[in-house]
Design brief:
The structure holds two protein chains of two kinds.
Chain A lengths: L2 H24 L15 E12 L5 E12 L13 H4 L10 H9 L2 E10 L4 H4 L28 E10 L11 H16 L41 E3 L5 E9 L6 H9 L15 H4 L4 E11 L9 E12 L1 H4 L8 E2 H5 L12 E7 L6 E4 L4 E3 L2 E5 L11 E4 L18 E8 L5 E10 L5 E9 L3 E12 L10 E7 L11 E9 L4 E10 L15 E3 L3 E4 L30 E2 L3 E3 L8 H25 L15
Parallel strand pairs in A: 1-10
Antiparallel strand pairs in A: 1-2, 2-8, 3-4, 3-7, 4-6, 5-6, 7-8, 9-14, 10-13, 11-14, 12-13, 15-16, 16-21, 17-20, 17-23, 18-21, 19-20, 22-25, 23-24
Helix pairs in contact in A: 3-5
Chain B lengths: L1 H27 L2 H9 L10 E8 L7 H16 L7 E5 L34 E2 L5 H9 L18 E8 L2 E2 L2 E4 L3 E4 H13 L5 E7 L15 E5 L9 E4 L6 E4 H10 L10 H6 L3 H4 L4 E3 L13 H4 L10 H28 L11 H17 L3 H26 L1
Parallel strand pairs in B: 1-2, 1-4, 2-3, 4-8, 8-9
Antiparallel strand pairs in B: 5-6, 6-7, 9-12, 10-11
Helix pairs in contact in B: 1-12, 3-6, 10-11
The chains are: A alpha+beta, B alpha/beta.
């Protein structure tokens, strides 16, 4: 096809997109038609970029692209096993990415969170990840992603809530585990990521730490109830229930090939709007970067208005303008300097397109161009305004010749400071040590979760808890311990899952230590770069539902064990960085030596024995020549 | 009376002559010719309708940056010449672009001038990191993948596909190392190609390899229609081309650098043949002795265009119905067997997202079914034949009638 014709097709496509958008916007969504509500109800697209200067001279830039399909709801899992014609409604989207919609409906996923992140998130200096500003009353993202769902687990993290109608496989349903397998393969293909490695060796279901951030739709009740619902599931009425699947691959690399499909899911791609700023050469040069895909269902009524399926594509980078400026050592930043691009044009299908800039305090600065609105310490730019062409927001510190790094550590922006390390030099044993400091003036109750692959085994009888360097054990501070031992080999492999509730007195440091054994792997189980060691996923500290008994009911009993002031919990999940565990590695050339040696021996023995068994020993009469018999 | 008789006779004669001429001229216009005229230039003698490329960088670690750059240079070339991303399987054993050691994050350069970023903004890496194993490579070639495998990680080629396979890494006599932990041998690749041939997964295959003692890797091939070339002969190393002081390692291998330089002069309409390309090999500048193996390849290299393998074509496949009837007899049992398989696949496909169920066996079934449909129709060739004989008969009848009246 000639370039001209190609351009024409693109134009036609764009026209088609517009007409679809306008017709779908004008069509009023009729009353719900059972579970097959019309998909092409109304779709909205909002995009925002939140820029937050950090105390260490860095700048956090968090993009959020939110698409809502109003009136839609996730597919009923009971319809999965049926024939094609009655299985599912057809999908027509104007703004919602069809590639993702097909995957979600093919596996009947109610809620999905995928994160591809690299680097260590410094909670103390940077606060919570995601799009929020310090001016917010609580460190919660002010746009789409629910509290803490943004997350900062290093590597590839995938978790999904999937429903089971309770009919079991006998009624043609597809099991949650099969759908989980299909889901991660499909997403691996879509996002060019190695998500196939998130197999059963890494999959677990820590439902308390990863509760649904939206609502799980009630399941249809025409299916037979299942008697033995597992502990990690959430009932959904009518015998159906929801289960979580969570897996984390800490060694995943994140690069341009992940951003390419990510940008393709945006309605305006990288051509217009804020998606223009997603420049791989700059984003992947950031000190920390993360891509996130968050799909959830918002129930109608309540705060969600009409409700519907919400997709938030989140991208975040922590840039260091001081490093980028070279010898100038300036922390002034602009779109041009951070992203090497400008917002060339507005995205015409966006309902809102905004840039939030948190303004520095107690420092002289200038911000260019003039913001559309300033609310407190946050300046807002509306990119859909008439004069918003080639927008390059820049912030300059007027009286600062060179940025001076703060000598004293500023007060932590995080309620907890967590350090986690592996101790011991042996290749057979080790110890896991975690220290948690409460930075608040109130006692904190927090959930603690370790999901470790079968490479290491924790020995729970060695678990000790101490407080503030005091040698006396304080096991009363750790309650509601659950432990699922690892299943290393065979058909039932799985990670070890340790979950507990911690109570930390105000301004105190709690130290937790547990011994562990390191696995001796089979020769074929080693990964290519075996000498480097294995990445262990980080621990998770998650908010406890202090008075909510709907799930995590076992953890709620920890409430009465602390006698001091009213306890609080943290507002978002805190992920610790990964660890590297050094396992015993064989001499990989040894099998060849063994093979060669044993082959030689077998050849010698077999050859001589075979020779002796088959050879006939006869006397040869030399006079009659060599004529035998 | 006689004149009217003559005029009627002439009219009939003209009519039958007209019939004869139309049938004979229509015979000259074969469907292939018509299709070729319709689709324009069709100078390639390959007969393929689609192109696939499998590009493998088998080396891990930062110091093997040049192998990543080799594969990405090939990726850029085949993409530039028209092979779409969906038909390119790119395997990179390590992440050079976003490696913390890379002073240019998100970029891979193949020359110290750093004028061309091979990673760009639209790269799609299908297998990466620990996914690049000998097992996955052989499964990709032979199509023996899990049903959950997404389309982007499958080689969905058919018997009209020209497949270009490029491999680079560290190797030796009849082996190539993957990830510094396992090897693929020349026998493994030869057997995989034979299986591809038996499963009708390629029309012609061009194998190119850049590694030490690369020419030993294609010595074991025994399947038809394979053309192979390598960077260096036995007991000979392949060397890197140049270093970059800022990146700190070698950025490209000598042989691949030569190939990419040559390819930069080629565009989609180029008539450069593979013979021209091989003639341009210069052991002095490449610093090793590249080899070519063409004994399995059926066409003369001077008639084989470079773009038959590096470029993307979108030709329609015209079935010659008279020739397809001949091998149909052989295929009947085969087709009925695959019809059942195809039905099963259709039923099983209902709940999947539609793409995963397509595999080579289904394609075979589809083509067989297509052939069944053609047999039931009255084919145009037979119709032409019948018309020819009818016109001859009418002409004969006219002559007989005229002779009887005389």
């Amino acid at each position: 096809m000639t370039p001209c014709a190609f351009r024409l097709t693109k134009c036609l496509l764009a026209l088609g997109l517009f007409s679809l958008a306008s017709t779908s916007a004008s069509a009023s969504s009729g009353p719900g038609q059972g579970h097959a509500a019309p998909i092409q109800a109304r779709e909205t697209f909002d995009e925002s970029l939140t820029l937050r200067p950090l105390p260490d001279g860095r700048v956090s830039a968090a993009f959020e692209f939110k698409t809502v399909v109003r009136g839609a709801r996730p597919r009923e899992p009971g319809s999965l096993g049926r024939a094609r014609e009655e299985g599912d409604v057809s999908q027509h989207y104007a703004l919602f990415p069809l590639e993702l919609g097909q995957i979600l409906r093919a596996h009947a996923v109610a809620e999905l969170h995928l994160g591809l992140r690299a680097g260590k998130w410094d909670y103390d200096a940077w606060g919570a990840p995601g799009a929020w500003t310090t001016a917010d009353p609580s460190p919660e993202p002010h746009a789409g992603v629910g509290a803490g769902a943004a997350g900062a687990a290093t590597g590839a993290e995938l978790y999904a809530w999937m429903g089971d109608a309770g009919g079991g496989e006998g009624e043609g349903g597809v099991s949650i585990d099969d759908r989980w397998t299909g889901l991660r393969s499909a997403l691996a293909g879509l996002f060019c990521a190695s998500l196939e490695s998130l197999d059963e060796r890494r999959t677990c279901a820590p439902a308390d730490a990863f509760p649904p951030s939206g609502t799980l739709p009630p399941l249809a009740s025409q299916y037979r109830p299942r008697s033995n619902a597992s502990g990690s599931s959430i009932g959904a009425g009518g015998g159906g229930y929801y289960e979580l699947r969570h897996a984390l691959q800490p060694a995943e690399h994140v690069c341009t090939e992940n951003l390419t499909p990510f940008v393709r899911l945006l309605p305006c791609k990288a051509a217009a709007g804020l998606g223009r700023l997603l420049n791989p050469q700059k984003l992947f040069g950031a000190d920390w970067h993360g891509l996130g895909v968050h799909v959830r269902w918002v129930a109608p009524g309540g705060g969600g208005g009409e409700g519907g399926v919400e997709l938030v594509l989140a991208a975040q980078g922590v840039f260091d303008p001081v490093r980028l400026s070279g010898s100038y050592r300036s922390r002034d930043w602009s779109f041009q300097r951070l992203f090497d691009r400008l917002v060339e044009a507005r995205c015409p299908v966006a309902r809102s397109s905004r840039v939030y800039v948190e303004l520095p305090q107690d420092v002289a600065y200038s911000v260019v161009p003039e913001p559309t609105k300033v609310e407190g310490a946050v300046a807002m730019y509306d990119l859909l305004a008439e004069n918003a062409e080639r927008v390059d927001v820049s912030l300059r510190y007027l009286l600062e010749k060179q940025f001076q790094y703060p000598t004293a550590r500023p007060p932590s922006l995080s309620p907890l400071t967590v350090r986690r390390a592996l101790h011991g030099t042996s290749q057979a044993h080790g110890a896991l040590a975690v220290s948690v400091t409460n930075n608040l003036d109130t006692p904190v109750r927090v959930g603690y979760l370790e999901t470790l692959p079968a490479l290491v085994t924790l020995w729970l009888h060695t678990l000790t808890v101490t407080l503030d360097g005091d040698a006396r054990p304080r096991n009363d501070l750790l309650t509601d311990l659950t432990y699922q031992p690892p299943l290393p080999h065979g058909a039932h492999t799985g990670p070890s899952v340790l979950q507990a509730a911690l109570a930390i007195p105000p301004r105190a440091t709690l130290r937790l230590s547990v011994d562990m054994g390191k696995a001796f792997l089979r020769y074929t189980e080693h990964q290519p770069d075996a000498m480097r060691g294995w990445d262990l996923p980080g621990a998770v500290f998650f908010p406890l539902a202090l008075d909510d008994k709907s799930y995590g009911a076992g953890l709620a009993s920890a409430k009465n064990s602390n006698e001091t002031a009213v306890a609080t919990t943290i507002g978002y999940r805190i992920h610790t960085p990964n660890l590297l565990v050094d396992l015993a590695t064989p001499d990989f050339s040894m099998p060849y030596n063994v093979i060669i040696l044993s082959c030689t021996l077998i050849t010698l023995i077999f050859g001589s024995v075979f020779n002796m068994l088959t050879r006939r020993w006869v006397l040869v009469d030399m006079d009659e020549g060599l004529d035998v018999e | 009376m006689l004149s009217s008789l003559f005029s009627r006779c002439w009219a009939l004669l003209l009519l039958s002559l007209a019939l004869w001429t139309t049938s004979t001229t229509a015979e000259g216009e074969t469907p292939e010719k018509q299709a070729a005229d319709f689709f324009g230039r069709h100078e390639s003698t390959s007969g393929h309708t689609n192109n696939w490329a499998v590009l493998v960088c088998a080396s891990r670690y930062w110091f093997n940056y040049r192998h990543m750059a080799n594969a990405l240079g090939m990726y850029r070339t085949v993409k530039r010449l028209g092979v779409p991303d969906s038909h390119i399987i790119l395997m990179l054993a390590d992440d050079a672009a976003c490696n913390p050691r890379n002073p240019f994050p998100g970029s891979v350069f193949a020359s110290s001038s750093r004028s061309l970023d091979l990673y760009g903004s639209h790269v799609e890496v299908d297998y990466r990191g620990t996914d690049v194993t000998v097992e996955n490579f052989l499964r990709l070639l032979t199509g023996r993948v899990s049903p959950d495998m997404p389309r982007s990680k499958r080689l969905l080629s058919d018997d009209k596909s020209n497949v270009f396979v490029y491999m680079t890494g560290h190797g030796g006599n009849e082996f190539l190392k993957f990830q510094d932990s396992e090897e693929i041998s020349a026998f493994d690749i030869a057997d995989a190609f034979e299986q591809m041939w038996q499963k009708r997964r390629y029309n012609e295959l061009f194998f190119m390899i850049d590694t030490c003692q690369a020419n030993t890797m294609y010595t074991k091939f025994y399947s038809p229609n394979i053309l192979a070339t390598g960077s260096s002969q036995i007991e000979e190393n392949s060397y890197s081309y140049e270093n970059d002081a800022d990146i700190g390692v070698s950025v490209i291998d000598s042989y691949t650098h030569f190939v990419l330089e040559y390819m930069e002069r080629i565009n989609k309409t180029s008539q450069t043949s593979l013979q021209d390309f091989f003639n341009a090999y210069n052991p002095h500048t490449i610093r090793s002795h590249p080899g070519v193996r063409s004994d399995l390849f059926q066409r003369p290299l001077s008639d084989t265009l470079l773009t038959d393998f590096f470029g993307g074509v979108a030709h329609a496949e015209i079935f010659d119905s008279s020739s397809s009837n001949i091998d149909f007899e052989l295929d009947e049992e085969f087709a009925s067997k695959w019809q059942a398989v195809y039905d099963d696949a259709c039923n099983a496909e209902t709940s999947s997202d539609g793409g995963d169920a397509e595999n080579s066996s289904e394609r075979v079934a589809q083509s067989s079914i297509r052939k069944i449909g053609e047999k039931l129709d009255l084919s145009p060739g037979k119709w032409k034949e019948a018309r020819k004989w009818a016109s001859v008969a009418s002409l004969g009848a006219l002559i007989a009638w005229a002779a009887s009246r005389w």
